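Protocol step 4 of 5: obtain the predicted structure for the target chain.
Materials: sequence only (see below). No template structures provided, no constraints applied. The aim of this step is simply to have a reference model before the mutagenesis design in step 5. Sequence pasted as it appears in the construct record:
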Amino acid sequence: MSNPLNGTLVLVGCGKMGSAMLEGWLARGIEASKIAVMEPMPSTELGALLSKHGVRLNFSPPSIEDAEVVIIAVKPQMMAEVLPHLLPLMAAKPLVLSIAAGKTIATFEAAFGKTTSIIRTMPNTPAAIGRGITAMVGNAHVSAAQMKLAESLLAATGEVVHVDDEAAIDLVTAVSGSGPAYVFLLAETLAAAGEKVGLPKEFAVRLARATVAGSGELMRQSGIDAAILRKNVTSPNGTTAAALQVLLADDGMQQLMNRAVEAAVRRSRELAR
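Step 4 output (structure tokens):
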């Protein structure tokens, strides 16, 4: 990445996702002097990271006159309290990039002005290891250069994809935003099922974790469609086929996943109101 910034990158909120992004930027060559962090309750790990690299922490917003990008990474319920304090940063006409769930572009236009360049994104937690995927959509005021800059910054934590309609962000949230929890639940329930049939708990957990992680990595590295990989490992009349008869039943995994994703979409839309 080297350093794509001319001005200052302001990171507002530096919890797990913000910290993952920050580490990615520093690792990929962005100068620490170009980054300023606002985080009222920094963790010990974050404090050590900022101190090590000399990143500014909890500055006064009026002191930054060259804000180029303002990344909003605070919890949605904190927006009303936080956004007014950021108004001095808007004098430089920065790009505002949000990674907050449920907060629409209109939320930030209302706070900073309708002509503000705003990008709304939905990342996911594998960003912490550089394997995330982030969907993004911008308003009409985002320039091509700003979009390219946003892509470069977001790529520090994984893949970046575009959606044309902001309404699609609710759908993305239900699939990739919340999706890691579904995968973790798969590992959790697989381990519990193994324990129920007689495996020692720790052994079942180890088998389940390695199986889920390894299968995901195989899918990523091979690029083969998931359905084909499933069929490749399913011998006719074998043990896998017997299990899949249950999971592929009319009331099986697909119906459960449909209901789960629909519930997540509904909740994302509720949060956006």
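Step 4 remarks: The chain has two domains: 8-167, 179-272. Residues 174 and 262 are 7 Å apart (CA to CA).
Proceed to step 5.
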